[in-house]
Amino acid sequence: MTSSQIRKKQEARARELPATAWAVLGLLSFPGERTGYELKKWADASLRFFYWSPAISQIYAELRRLEGLGYADSRRSGPEEVRTKRRYAITDAGRAALADWASDTAEAGPPVLKHGVLLRVWLGHLADPARLRAVVADHIARTREELAEVREARTRAADTPAWTYPELALRWSERHHEAELTLAEALLADLDELADGPPPAGGGAPRQGTGDAPTGG
Amino acid sequence: MTSSQIRKKQEARARELPATAWAVLGLLSFPGERTGYELKKWADASLRFFYWSPAISQIYAELRRLEGLGYADSRRSGPEEVRTKRRYAITDAGRAALADWASDTAEAGPPVLKHGVLLRVWLGHLADPARLRAVVADHIARTREELAEVREARTRAADTPAWTYPELALRWSERHHEAELTLAEALLADLDELADGPPPAGGGAPRQGTGDAPTGG
DNA sequence: TTGCCCATGTAATTTGTTACATGATTTA
DNA sequence: TAAATCATGTAACAAATTACATGGGCAA
User: What pTM was computed for the model?
Assistant: First the structure.
């Protein structure tokens, strides 16, 4: 294989980086040099509210990949032999590639949602109504706690000019958590209505029939 | 660690199937026998709105695992030698295990959200404002289309007694998509406000709306 | 001096995807 | 009769987690 072919392949691979790699590079795109460890804490404290916080081992792996691609570079503090802090910074090439990725309208797929609570509601026919209700109620309580954390994170982000956009994202997250609460309350009400037997309007007997063989789909 | 501790850990791991396995078993928990192929189509048409639709190859793999655990069984239609339809059904053990999992309050972790659009907004300092706006506008358009699909799925689920809970989950999904639209419109407004220059502290910025009413239904 | 936080990394494993191979049945 | 759809599966690979190994610095 010629070196130009190799280069092309590397470019193609670089373009198709998983979103996680861009997220890590994104963390580096804000002012300052950071260690993998710091990146992980930052992701836990804010990225995770609207995206997700990778495992620390994955962050280290992504940092190595980004450095291999020339999108980031690193330097050690302390003597060479010792395994000590390694601080990463984004390169100009990295910033350019990231900017490119971030404004690519087509590439942004639909948001991925895996809602374990809803999965359980969906399976409601198997569960005791009271326990199902408890699953949703617990979710509400946890969401309230999360909401408090989002607000805290947003407060930290506010008034730092470089963090205007992160603050926007956190503002969205705050509203999103508020909406999640509203949705969960409505779900609880729907569940209660089912349990009490559907109210007057129309045909409502306490619908409990076996009702055979829906074909699926 | 003692060998008994190790044994306990292994047992715990065996009990803790990934949520995907439970989701597939859940698909089987509704009346009727189904092929892997049918399961995939069903997941595409409704599960994916609040959870996620696994790749067909993974569905086949999960079905084999579930059968190995005695949670499902299968039979072929057609002569033995030929590779033909294999229909799966849930077993009593499977139903019991699934019911157990579904009503376990503690086990239901927080919902997982990976929002590529928000990741891009978070990186707004790197992007051209107009293109960033386009990313969000595109997201709104796509969400509207998805909302229509959710409504369609919900209509299909309604009035089938065995699908009461799936219908509840889809009702939640519908509201969730509506909320997603509202949130995205608000985000667009925030973005515009940033671009126009922040307004004089008091409040009422111009913020041109999209003209569309977000909260249908 | 024990335990926690900082800090980096490897290894094993699991989870999940895409690409490919195969062939039957239905529909235009 | 060509195509799409139904249907199952394998193989290769990518993504991501958990468990483990290592060690410095600091505080109760």
Answer: 0.85
